[in-house]
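Second opinion, please. Pick holes in both lines of this record:
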Amino acid sequence: MIKKLLLFITFLLTLATNAQYTTVINSNNPGFSESPYSVGSGVYQFESSLFFRSTSATPTFSNPQAKGLNLLFRTSFFSEKLEFNLKTSLLSDKIAFKNVFESSYNEFGLGQLTLGAKYLIYTPKYNDKKKEIRSWRARHSFDYKRWIPHIGAYAGLNFGSILNTPHKKGGISPKVGLLLQNEFSTKLNVVTNLYYDNIGTDFTELSYIITGTYNFNDYWSGFAEWQDTFEKYERKNNVGIGAAYLFNEDMQFNATLRGSFDQEKIGLYTSVGVSYRINRHHNKFLEVDEFGNKIEEQKSTKYTENKGFFGRLFDKIKGVFKKKDKHTVTIKEGEKEEKITIQRPKRERSKSLVDVIVKEDIKEKKKTTKAEKKAAKKAVKEAEKAIKNKEKERLKLEKNIKKEEEKEAKRKEKERKEIEKNLLKEAKRKEEERLKLEKEIKKLEEDLKKEDEKEQKKDN
């Protein structure tokens, strides 16, 4: 069914040249870059990924490890070229302290919350090589107009005050960006993003992302990406590769592996995700006949031309003279009479090719809806279960750390009291020795005095 829809893309684009909608889901995942195109009106798209990030701990406080869930919601209304999106992440950060000794604890919360919008400013037009029949070389040569990119603008607001402690970056701050996309062929395209983020805060940063995507077939695609971020006191960059699989026209699975380079640290980032959309988009088709004239709805014909005034009047009264689809005619041939039932003719329009494809698509969707719902519910339950388990582990670790701290405090208090007791004993002993010595000195002085008195008596 997907192949039939893919064959119809060109036809749809000729009917609505300004439309952003595509019959197959168009997801930003698994890369960090963003296409300048919107999802199209009537589309509600969810892009999620479970990720794990790990780097080495640095002296004093650092955030060497994080795991969680990235979420992106996209929709479009007012205009096909305008998209609104909400990006957030729910994660558990490992906060580490490394100095003489090393310790760590986990902190759970939001890692990002950004409300944004993007608008497609310019779309270049490329030469149709299929119409070039005079020269094989001209038909297969590269169209240098493809170096002219599709251009989009992005603007958003970061809500930094409600984020997890390691990710707090002031209050509400703006974010702006320039989105570019070059379609070098039907299989290869390159997306370039330039961002100026956290404007007006102490964490202002400039960044750029370059992503190259190659479609191997109708289902599989691969990508390679480079991101560079310039902050006030440091520079960060990462390189990544990944792949995406188109499960059906409304669902895509993806995975990525990245390496990050932050000053002297080297880290690892990996994620798996799924993108899903609820499609309520409606194209306005204009049906024409073989001469290019618009096909209009046929009005039903009333077979009351041969009736009189009262007959037509009674036909309008509901339930009196009910219109019948069948009537009986008697045919005589000599002495034989034969009754024939005649079906009144109905005027019907031929079915539209688009309606046939849509009906087939609905049938295919009904077959896979139950399995998709089960898979989605299972994924949500597993994610909730994983989050609960991590929270239990965090609480248990905090409890153990608290017990160890209390135990260590009691031991130190006991040692302090014992030292105080020993010091008091030693002071008491020295005091007794001092008194004894004073007593002996006094006695010696008295003896010397007596001897002096005796000698004086002898002299006298």
Observations:
- Residues 353-459 form the longest helix (107 residues).
- Residues 286 and 292 are 10 Å apart (CA to CA).
- The radius of gyration is 42 Å.
